[in-house]
Design goal:
Keywords: Coiled coil, Membrane, Transmembrane, Transmembrane helix. It is a single chain. With about 450 residues, the protein is mainly α. The protein has helices at about 1-65, 75-225, 230-245, 250-375, 385-415; strands at about 75, 445. The protein folds into 2 domains: about 1-150 and about 310-445; about 160-295. It contains 5 helices and 2 strands. It has a two-stranded antiparallel sheet with strand order 1-2. Helix 1 (about 1-65) packs parallel to helix 4 (about 250-375) and helix 2 (about 75-225) packs antiparallel against helix 4 (about 250-375). The two termini are about 105 Å apart. Mean pLDDT is about 80; it is low at about 235-245, about 370-380 and about 420-435.
């Protein structure tokens, strides 16, 4: 029991630690990733501000070029170089946003791995809890079986005790009935002894009566001639006195012996019954002691069973905690995967924009070099060639404007995304007054002399 309780307690402590780790990871990762996302937003705002300003100035410059009468007299090298520098500035901000997105991705991945570690720890505790639950259920089943067995033994012992009580009552009643019969026999013996005494008394009286009877008989016979037979009655009375014998004493004595024999038999039976009753009472006391012992045993087993049931309930509660923690870990990982996917989309979009800008920046640098060469070789280049080069530069600037438009559109889409629920950050477009550096204005149009 103590070992089981300690194991469950250790599991609870581990789960509490896992809960605290999840909470800490949640807070730390949100703060870290939120800072990175904020940096992405800030850099993206700066890049879009630069792109928008470059696009507007370039559009105005292209309108200005529409009024040029002789393209061979225009020097576009400063504007091409300015545009290249502007693209490099936009690209630098986007690359900075991309780096922040990479950092945010790394932070979310680190958080995901740590949450997975917590999840594995929770799974391990779940396995340990399964063992504890199985052990608790087995012990509870054994305790319940033992309790049921003890209750059955107690019930049987109580029935045996009741049977002993009934047997004692029967034996006691039988012994009392025998005592009653013995009392009746003693009384009958006493009566017989009284009859014997009465017989002896009558015999003594008989001797005296016999003498009187003989005298009366003689007198009656002698007086008969003189009394005309009247004295014969006196003679008859005298004969009656002389003839009385009474009850036979030997018969009474035989009856008394028979009664005494029955009394002796009853005494033996009563003694035996009393011994049986005494033995039954001892057995009854032993059974009552067993009943008390079984009741204490049942109380102890019931308490043990209740403790195991309590452990099972506690384990079930811990199991609910594990289920909750698993759900939190899974939901966190799912949310992290969602934000990872979104950050990956952001990174891919930024990467595409930076690639487009870098490609056009290279073209602009090449074009600026070409313009410088053309200007340096004014005397050697035909007007037709210089006019073609002018048109090519305008086309390149228009292509750059299209790239800037695409970058601006993609950036606005990113800034309008609000799906990062896990990070609990402000919406992408919630940044107020981002800090940006001053923009370089496009150089004025210059003519070639």
């Amino acid at each position: 029991m103590d070992s089981l309780s300690n194991n469950v307690s250790n599991i609870q402590q581990s789960l509490q630690s896992a809960k605290e780790r999840l909470s800490s990871l949640d807070a730390t990762s949100k703060n870290t990733v939120a800072a990175e996302v904020s940096a992405v937003r800030s850099s993206l705002h700066n890049s879009l501000r630069k792109a928008q300003q470059a696009k507007l100035q370039m559009s105005s410059f292209l309108v200005l070029l529409e009024n040029v009468e002789d393209p061979t007299t225009v020097n576009m090298a400063p504007q091409i170089s300015w545009l290249a520098r502007s693209l490099d500035g936009v690209t630098a901000s986007i690359i900075q946003a991309e780096a922040s997105a990479d950092s945010a991705l790394q932070s979310t991945m680190d958080c995901c791995y740590q949450v997975m570690d917590v999840g594995r720890d929770v799974e391990a505790q779940d396995d340990l809890l399964d063992e504890c639950q199985s052990q608790a259920k087995e012990l509870a089943s054994q305790a319940e079986s033992s309790l049921t067995s003890s209750e059955a033994i107690l019930a049987q012992t109580q029935r045996d005790t009741s049977a002993k009580e009934e047997e004692i009552r029967i034996k006691t009643r039988q012994a009392n009935e025998k005592r009653t019969r013995k009392t009746e026999l003693d009384r009958e013996i006493s009566q017989k002894n009284g009859q014997i005494a009465e017989t002896h008394r009558r015999r003594e009286s008989k001797k005296e009566s016999a003498g009187v009877g003989l005298i009366l008989t003689g007198i009656g016979l002698m007086a008969a001639p003189f009394t005309a037979g009247a004295s014969l009655g006196l003679a008859a009375a005298g004969a009656g006195f002389a003839g009385y014998k009474g009850v036979r004493v030997s018969d009474l004595k035989d009856e008394i012996v028979a009664l005494q024999s029955r009394v002796s038999a009853l005494n033996r039976e009563i003694t035996q019954d009393q011994q049986v009753i005494s033995n039954l009472e001892i057995e009854q006391r032993n059974l009552q002691d067993l009943v008390s012992q079984y009741q204490r045993d049942i109380s102890s087993r019931r308490s043990t069973h209740q403790l195991y049931q309590k452990q099972i309930s506690e384990a079930n509660r811990v199991e609910n905690d594990i289920t909750t923690l698993k759900g939190v870990a899974e939901a966190t990982i799912s949310s992290i995967n969602g934000i990872n996917s979104e950050l990956q989309d952001v990174k891919e979009c930024l990467d595409e924009c930076s690639s487009l800008l870098q490609a056009k920046s290279v073209e602009l640098s090449t074009s600026a070099t070409s313009v410088d060469w053309v200007i340096g070789a004014v005397g050697r280049c035909t007007k037709r060639f210089r006019a073609k080069e002018f048109e090519r530069q305008i086309t390149l600037m228009q292509q750059v404007a299209e790239v800037l438009e695409k970058v601006e559109q993609e950036g606005q889409l990113l800034l309008s995304s609000q799906n990062m629920a896990l990070l609990d950050t402000k919406p992408w477009d919630d940044v107020k007054n981002p800090i940006v550096e001053e923009h370089e204005t496009i150089p004025e149009l210059m003519n070639v002399r």
